[in-house]
Amino acid sequence: MPLVRLSNVGKVYRSLTGDDYTAVQDFNLDIEQGEFICLLGTSGCGKTTILNMVAGFEHATNGVIEIAGRAIDGPGADRGVVFQGDDSLYGWLSAIGNIEFGLKMRGVPKAVRRVQAKRYLEMVGLTGQEHKHPTELSGGMKQRIQIARVLANEPQMLLMDEPFAALDAHTRAAMQSELLRIWRATSKTVLFITHDIDEAIILATKIGVMHAGPASKLKSVIDVTLTAAERDRTHDRFVSTYREVHTIMRDEVAIAMQRTH
Amino acid sequence: MFQTLGRLSGYLFGFASLFLVWHIASAYLLRSVLFPQPAKVFATALELTLDGTLGQHVGVSLGRIFVGFVGGSLIGIPIGLSIGSFGIVRRLLEPYTEFLRFIPATALITMAVIWFGIGEGSKIFLIIYTTVFIVIINTAAGVSAVAPNKIRAARSLGASRGQIFLHVALPATMPFILTGMRLAMANSFVTIVAAELVAANAGLGKMIWDARLYMLVDHIFVALLVLGFMGFIADRLFRWGIYAFAGRFQPVT
Ligand SMILES: Nc1ncnc2c1ncn2[C@@H]1O[C@H](COP(=O)(O)OP(=O)(O)O)[C@@H](O)[C@H]1O
Ligand SMILES: [Mg+2]
C-alpha cells in the first residue's frame, strides 16, 4: 500500500461571481514510503492546490486522498509543510523557538525539546544562530529554520511548496544538496513542488509532470534513476533526463504562455 | 551610549528653542498681560507646586486617564480579538463600532455628566469610551492581518485551536494592540481636559476653567505647559515600555 494515494482528485474553486474554476481534475498519484517526489508544472497549473489538499488546508471537491489507507480530514502533525515564502515563521520567537514550536504545542518538556531542537538546528547548518529572530536572518537561513521546524516535529512526510524559488542561484544549489543529505539521513517521504526542471532532476526519485491548467491532471510520471554523482548538470545522464522531461513539459509551457499572454 | 546622548541633547535643544521663541514673542513682539513670559509662568508653576494645588490637579487628571485607559484597553482587547477571529461576532458588533467611533467622546460629555454626575463616573466613562473603540478597531485589524500561513503552519505542527489563538494569533496581533493603545492614550489626554473644562470639581481642565474666571492667564499657561509635558512623558514611557517588554513582537511605534 502506498503511503499517500490520490484517487481521481479534483478541486473546483467557487467564485463569488459565479465563474467556478476547475483547477485540477481526475488527478491520480501514488506516493511510496521514502520516495522523493517532485511535482513539476507551469505556473498556475495547480501544484499548490494539490499540496494544500494533501496538507489538509483545502478539501478536495472530488475524489479521495488517503494517507496509510485513511482518508485525510484536515492538517496533521504527520505531514510537515515548508512554505514558499517566510511569512509562516513566527517573528516573535527566536530561531530555536520556531524550531521547537511543534514540540511545545504537543507538550514536550522544555529541556527535552531544547535538546531535540538543537539537533535539528545543527542538521540544517544553523548552529550558533539559535537566538536570532527571523528578521535578522537571510532568506536561505529562514528556509533552513522552516525545514528544521518541520523535521523537529518528526512528521511522516514533508510537503514542500517551491521552498527555494525565492533564493539566489548559489543559495538554492546549496539548499538542494543539504536537503538531499537530510533526506538520505532521515529517509522521510517528500512531496516537493517546483517549476524548475533542473531542481526536479537533482532532487527527485520520481517526477510527476502536470498538464497546464485548467482541469489539470498528471501528464506523465518519470522515474529518476540517476546516482548521486550523476545528479550534476554537466553529466550526460543528467542532460538526457533533462531532454526527456523537457520534451514532456514543452507543450504545456506553450499552452500556459498562450493563456497568460 | 553616544547615540542616546545625541538624541537626548537633540530633545533638550528642541525644548530650549521652544521656550526661547516663547520668550522672544512675549517679551518683545506681543507684549501683553494676556501673554505671560515663560519666567513668569515658571514662577507661578513653582508657587502652585509648593502650595500643592498643581500636584492635586495633575494627580486627579492622571488618575482618571489611568483608570479609564486601562479599563478601556481591558475591555477593547478581547472584543477586538473576537471581532477579528469570528465572522459572526464581527457582523454582530461592527454596527456598534462603525457607528460609535464617529461620535467623539467630547460630543458625549454633556450626556455623561447627566448620566454619571460631575464626579469621577463621567470622566472615567469618557476615557473608557475614547479608548475602547480605537483599541477594538486596531486589535481586530491586527487579527485579520495575521498571515494565513502562520496559522496553517501551526495546524500542521499539531497545535489545537486554543493554542493557535494563544501562541500565534495573539502574539502576531500584539503590535497592532500596542499601536491602538498608544493612539488611545493620546486621545485620553484630549478628552479629559475637555471633560474637566465642562464640568468637574478638580483636574487640569477645571484649573484652566477657574483661572479664566479670575483672568489668571499665567495659571492657564501652567496647566497647558504641564499637559504638554505629561502627554510627552506618557507617550515616551509607553514607547519605552513597549520596547522593554514587547520588543520581540516588533511594535510599530
Ligand atoms: N483560493 C483560490 N480561489 C480561486 N482560484 C484559485 C485559488 N487558488 C488557486 N486558484 C487558481 O487555481 C489555479 C492553480 O493555482 P495554484 O495551485 O496556486 O497553481 P501553482 O501552484 O501551480 O502555480 C490558478 O489558476 C489559480 O488562479
Ligand atoms: Mg504555487
What does this structure look like?
The complex is a heterodimer of chains A (about 260) and B (about 250). Chain A contains eight helices and ten strands. With about 260 residues, chain A is an alpha/beta fold. Chain A folds into two domains: about 5-80 and about 155-260, Rossmann fold; about 90-155, no CATH class. The mean pLDDT of chain A is about 90. By secondary structure, chain B is mainly alpha-helical. Chain B is built from ten helices and no strands. Chain B has helices at about 1-30, 40-50, 55-85, 85-100, 110-115, 120-145, 150-155, 160-200, 205-215, 215-245. Chain B folds into two domains: about 1-30; about 35-250, MetI-like fold (Orthogonal Bundle), CATH 1.10.3720. Magnesium ion binds near residues 47, 48 and 161 of chain A.
CATH topology of the largest domain in chain A: Rossmann fold
CATH superfamily of the largest domain in chain B: MetI-like
What is the name of the CATH topology of the largest domain in chain B? MetI-like fold
Number of helices, where a helix is a run of at least 4 consecutive DSSP H or I residues of chain A:
8
The gross shape of chain B turns out to be: globular
Number of domains of chain B: 2
Poorly predicted ranges of chain B: none
Q: How big is the Rg of chain A?
A: 19 Å
